[in-house]
Amino acid sequence: MKPDTMRKIDATLGPPICAMLTLRRKILDKIWPRRFGALAGTPIKKILMVKPAEMGSTVLMYAMLRRAREIWPECEFHFLVFAENTAAVEMLGLVPKENIHTIKTSNLLTFTYEALQRLISLNFAKFDLVFDLEFFSRASAILAELTGARSSCGFNRFTMEGLYKGNFFTHPVQYNAHIHTAQTFLAMIDAVIQPTGQIPLSKSPVKQLEDLELARLSTSTEEQQQLKNLLYCEAPDCPRENRLVIINANSSELVPLRRWPLENFIELGRRLLERTNISIVLTGTSGERPESERVSTALGSNRVINMVGKTSLRQLLVLYSVCDLMITNDSGPSHFASLTDLPVITLFGPETPKLYGALGKNKVAISAGLACSPCVSSYNHRVTSCNSNVCMRSIHVDDVYSTCQKLLQP
User: Fold this and answer.
1) What is the overall mean pLDDT for the chain?
2) Residue 150 pLDDT > 90, yes or no?
3) Alpha helices (runs of H) in 54-149, residue ranges in sequence order
4) What is the pTM of this model?
5) Which of 57, 81, 300, 338 lies 20 to 30 angstroms, CA to CA, from 131?
6) Where among 166, 189, 211 does a domain terminate?
């Protein structure tokens, strides 16, 4: 299913289903009470994370998972995700493959069938705690509620005008749009150990971004050499001693307005290629191949290596470990690069780096700072009335190239 279709289904069917589940929960809690209150001293053996979409956000959950492991050392993590996001969970190294439960989304019928199948198996698994990690998606809240977990944590609008998600979490958390997403996820763990009766539950200090523990990529010299061989097999005339700069000229279909004009990427590529010791690597998914071909043709150089659609996620991460810089739209790759020390320039427009900026050193965000930006948020379900992404087109090639020069210094 396309993102727009999923949003429409969520917006139309989501509210009445959430309302019915709220009523159902009030009745069930009188018969089979769940675990409310502080869970710090409660034996938690199995935790389910419901995070169906957005692969990049998975990286931002690492500090949250580590904090949960500190509180409940014996806990076993499970994830419920859309099938295409399996690799993103695997790369964290904290979740065995058999603990990743997937739902295919090729069409509505398949999604419905797979969701029912997974819910049945998850109920038999008997989870102690489930986290709904989508800010205002009703589908994820519905899935979390129907897993049958003894305790549940998710976002609640309370008195805000946010999207309605029902009222059935044992530990509802108020969403804070003024702290980074990684800090928000971490606050959810602190929420479930807060004393009973506090509203909202997330009354804990915000941990500074530079203090958050980040996932790290472990690669071997052999893996890196294999990746380099793959690069130069694709472009045999490319000088092997050159520094490698990644251009990720695309972004997901979730928010197409996040794309910097392709002409700007081409102009940036031309300026970079003026330095004879630089080669460019194009990355992206197989569906983005036409755009990459256009960039490659326009640059017309044997120092351009088009790897779009030709790497697995693991190979892409290894690629990050051997390159010197990446320029990308606001999308998953900027977060994946946080697993390495690769310097990254992320271009922001409809969304803000204050909430979604890549973590780690040498991660730079550039935005035009227009008055209307950001216009996409969890409060509007990432649907904006904007019909022209001036915020992206106002980011000048000169500014991006200048930042490239600074990050490419020896």
Assistant:
1) 91
2) yes
3) 55-59, 62-71, 86-90, 108-125, 138-145
4) 0.90
5) 338
6) 211
